[in-house]
Structure formats: structure tokens, C-alpha cells
């Protein structure tokens, strides 16, 4: 933690303070885990990230979902699928960012 605090005071920061604050605690919050579980059950994602970006108060979230279920759908429809799954949680938030994608073919 001392190293993080020194880095925050450093005049030559490569990352912003929010990067260090987010990464100082690796434990997911209950809401992050709940949202992730709901999305995993409904969309079987190949990649998912749910992160509280509010500094821990639970009012803002960043969500990334990559799923085969999005194949053939435009981004607005992909977002509708995600928001339908977590609509109750969204009602309690101030805001959130959402990024959806389909897995790359190898």
C-alpha cells in the first residue's frame, strides 16, 4: 500500500489515481459478484468484467461482456440483452458504462 501511495504522489504518473485505488483492493463487492453471476447465467460469456468505478460506494459500474449470444446482433440489441438481465440492479445505480462484443474467431 505504501508503494501505491508513493506512486499517487509522484509527479510522473503514468496511470491516474483511480487506477491505483481500483487495484489496491482486489476483492469484488457483493454487487459485482451478483451482477456477474446473473450475466454469466443468462449470457454464458466468454469474457466478463463487472467493476465498481465509484470508489466503493456502489453508484457507478463498468461492465464488459463478450458472448456468442451477441453474434448477428447490433450493439443496441446486445446492450438491451444485458440491461434486461440486470434491470433491477441498474435502477439502484447512478450510472454505468457497458461494452459488449462477440468472441473473435480463431
Structure description:
The chain is an alpha+beta fold and 106 residues long. 42% of the residues lie in helices and 19% in strands. A three-stranded mixed beta sheet has the order 1-2-3. A hairpin with a 7-residue loop joins β1 (47-52) and β2. The radius of gyration is 16 Å and the shape is globular. It starts with a helix and ends in a 5-residue tail after the last strand.
The number of helical elements comes to: 5
Q: Report, as a whole number of angstroms, the end-to-end distance.
A: 40 Å
Radius of gyration: 16 Å
Please state the structural category: alpha+beta
* Main sheet makeup: 3 strands, mixed
Number of strands: 3
Taking strands numbered 1, 2, ... along the chain, how are they ordered across the largest sheet?
A: 1-2-3
The ordered H/E elements are HHHEEHHE
Labels describing this entry:
106 residues; alpha+beta; three-stranded mixed beta sheet; 5 helices; 3 strands; 19% strand
Task: Record the SSE blueprint.
Elements: H1 2-9, H2 17-24, H3 30-43, E1 47-52, E2 60-66, H4 75-85, H5 87-90, E3 95-101
Tell me briefly what this model is.
This protein has helices spanning 2-9, 17-24, 30-43, 75-85, 87-90, and strands at residues 47-52, 60-66, 95-101. The chain is of the alpha+beta class and 106 residues long. It has a 3-stranded mixed sheet.
